[in-house]
Amino acid sequence: MIITCKKGAPQEEINKIIHNFESQGLEVTLSRGANYNVFGIVGDTTVVDERKIRANKWIEDVTRIGAPYKKVNRLFHPEDSVIDVAGIKIGGMEKIVVIGGPCSVEGREEICNIAEAVKDAGACMLRGGAYKPRTSPYAFQGLGTEGIEYMVEAKKNTGLPIVSELMSADKIDEFVEHVDLIQVGARNMQNFDLLKALGKINKPILLKRGLSNTVEEWLMSAEYIMAGGNENIILCERGIRTFERCTRNTLDLSVVPIIKRKSHLPIIIDPSHATGDWELVESMSLAAIAAGADGLIIEVHNNPECAWSDGAQSLKPDKFKTMIEKGRVIAEVVGRGM
Amino acid sequence: MIITCKKGAPQEEINKIIHNFESQGLEVTLSRGANYNVFGIVGDTTVVDERKIRANKWIEDVTRIGAPYKKVNRLFHPEDSVIDVAGIKIGGMEKIVVIGGPCSVEGREEICNIAEAVKDAGACMLRGGAYKPRTSPYAFQGLGTEGIEYMVEAKKNTGLPIVSELMSADKIDEFVEHVDLIQVGARNMQNFDLLKALGKINKPILLKRGLSNTVEEWLMSAEYIMAGGNENIILCERGIRTFERCTRNTLDLSVVPIIKRKSHLPIIIDPSHATGDWELVESMSLAAIAAGADGLIIEVHNNPECAWSDGAQSLKPDKFKTMIEKGRVIAEVVGRGM
Amino acid sequence: MIITCKKGAPQEEINKIIHNFESQGLEVTLSRGANYNVFGIVGDTTVVDERKIRANKWIEDVTRIGAPYKKVNRLFHPEDSVIDVAGIKIGGMEKIVVIGGPCSVEGREEICNIAEAVKDAGACMLRGGAYKPRTSPYAFQGLGTEGIEYMVEAKKNTGLPIVSELMSADKIDEFVEHVDLIQVGARNMQNFDLLKALGKINKPILLKRGLSNTVEEWLMSAEYIMAGGNENIILCERGIRTFERCTRNTLDLSVVPIIKRKSHLPIIIDPSHATGDWELVESMSLAAIAAGADGLIIEVHNNPECAWSDGAQSLKPDKFKTMIEKGRVIAEVVGRGM
Amino acid sequence: MIITCKKGAPQEEINKIIHNFESQGLEVTLSRGANYNVFGIVGDTTVVDERKIRANKWIEDVTRIGAPYKKVNRLFHPEDSVIDVAGIKIGGMEKIVVIGGPCSVEGREEICNIAEAVKDAGACMLRGGAYKPRTSPYAFQGLGTEGIEYMVEAKKNTGLPIVSELMSADKIDEFVEHVDLIQVGARNMQNFDLLKALGKINKPILLKRGLSNTVEEWLMSAEYIMAGGNENIILCERGIRTFERCTRNTLDLSVVPIIKRKSHLPIIIDPSHATGDWELVESMSLAAIAAGADGLIIEVHNNPECAWSDGAQSLKPDKFKTMIEKGRVIAEVVGRGM
Question: Which DSSP string do the residues of D82-132 spell out, in sequence order?
Answer without folding.
Answer: -EEETTEEESTTSPPEEEEE-SB---HHHHHHHHHHHHHHT-SEEE-BSS-
